[in-house]
Amino acid sequence: xxxxxxxxxxxxxxxxxxxxxxxxxxxxxxxxxxxxxxxxxxxxxxxxxxxxxxxxxxxxxxxxxxxxxxxxxxxxxxxxxxxxxxxxxxxxxxxxxxxxxxxxxxxxxxxxxxxxxxxxxxxxxxxxxxxxxxxxxxxxxxxxx
Length: 145
What we know:
Helix content: 25-40%
Strand order of the largest sheet: 1-3-2
Radius of gyration: 15 Å
Largest sheet: 3 strands, antiparallel
Strand content: under 5%
Number of strands: 3
Order of helices and strands: EHHEEHHHHHH
Number of helices: 8
Structural class: mainly alpha
């Protein structure tokens, strides 16, 4: 547990799962971390979290999201970073190395040119349409220390 009462990112290592991960409603996730639903929605609006959404708009996370949520909370509360600072930090993740982009692709990539927001904020950067499953988004919590 950290000083805000929630778990530390290091306590929340994703476990290998078989099949589809269990979806957890945003309210249950907020309760788990001791924060409000509105705060998690704010992090989503700021491009820091990507929830799964039902056709009716209900937001869900999975346990796979817990390390990243804990990391964002720690960056805000312990490191005292604001949203712009977190986005800038995330923009420094070398997505072109993780995705093994060639030099030509990197030269034309908006994410490689702009260090103000993480690459998943730019819908045109990913090789996949689903940013929730993006390798860069999934690796972000490992890059924050």
